[in-house]
Fold this sequence. Notes:
β1, α1 (22-34) and β2 (38-40) form a beta-alpha-beta unit. The protein is 45% helix and 11% strand. It is of the alpha/beta class.
Amino acid sequence: MPKDDDFDRNVFVNCPLDEDYDHILQAVLFCLVRFGLKPRIATERSDAGESRISKILDLIRSSRYSIHDLCRCQARDEGEYYRLNMPFELGLDFGCRHYGSGRLTNKVILVLEEQQYRYQAAISDLAGSDIEAHHGDYQLAVRKVRNWLADMPDFEAIGAARVLADYEDFQEWYFERQRNLGFSDDDIRDYSTAELLRAMIDWRLN
Length: 206
């Protein structure tokens, strides 16, 4: 496996990619960047010639930390299929930690859900594991992620309230910057993940 100098900073984020989840995803990504970490997510790069599973495996292998949100494990509408991508990728990550060697055995995993015990009906093998519930609230999701990161080496000991306040500052800064560059409100909302992450890093470095 090729050496990745960012392994100890990389955080693989496995979560829903639908519009209803955007408010949680953006806040969690910001929280990670705020603490000097490097989020890695499948949508960070777009290459039609790259298979999705190869990309996922590469991101898992190159990340010490992982966040898996299983909040779409239950279908919401009649006739709708529940989504298996998130549990599948969680399984790949557990396997990487269990069967891997060297630094892979030190991978750290956070599992999120919308409701505390709903996952047990879908993935009973996780019974006894620590699962954190965010109840669809981005602020609570940030608190869960911040508390999980508290065991990280050289953790910056600030509270979730400070992170959320900084997130509000970032949003105001980002919208003002994009408008000054000629973007409409629709343009700003139609962001790519890579573009948003670059903006978060720029904000942190300013």
